[in-house]
Amino acid sequence: MESYEGKVALITGGSNGIGAAVARRLAGEGARVVLADVDVEAGTALAAELSGVFVRCDVREPAQCEAAVAAAVTAFGGLDLAFLNAGVATGCDLDTDFDPAAYRRAMAINLDGVVYGVHAALPALRARGGGDIIATASMAGLTAAPFDPIYGANKAAVVGLVRALGPAHENEGIRVNALCPSYADTDILVPLRSRLDETGFPILEVDTVVEAFMAILAAGRAGECWYVVPGRTSEPFRFRGVPGPRVAATERGEPGGSPGQNEQEA
Description:
The protein is α/β, with parallel strands linked by helices. The protein contains 8 helices and 8 strands; from the N terminus they run E-H-E-H-E-H-E-H-E-H-E-H-H-E-E-H.
């Protein structure tokens, strides 16, 4: 079991919900936590409880993401883990009630916030000789989410980003992964609660999500997207390979075409 004693963790969206629960778990195992959020009152109180640091951070602003990383380095000497967890549900209808402002806000928080967080965290992790970045995606990024398609779109983008960043930085000792819970019992469910209740969709306990987060850290791998759903043990989602290019017969010098190296037969 890896020790988190003295490790420094930055958590965006750390004032409430999954972020706050992960902060409590890491602090309980000896980590120093920096909470970055727009909820100043809750974040300040939690930071005091955990002997950590709170910094107000709107993840839509690159400079504020950089300031949050700088606060961790200044307060505790470096950064070992960035949990890029800030997110919102959208309830954004693409039909008659489409609201471009709601759309842009959701994309900015759920996707841009991860991009800016990674950009800000990489130099600090590199200076530490490596570390972890975990982004909160969602099961909505792995499967269809017809009652909130914009949420599904930005979470699918986070999944794609993590899958690309994992192998890009693993040789530096920087492990980038995604946490993909189904709907957990947090404030993000408020606009969706009635729909979920109507369908009888089971709601995740936050503690279950925390355990999956810790499992990602313990696994020590990169580029993985761990699903978290009720009644199942969390593990990396297994993506099917995609068809590769088909090599033409004339290019291969053969009488008939054949599948390319990366192509899967039906």
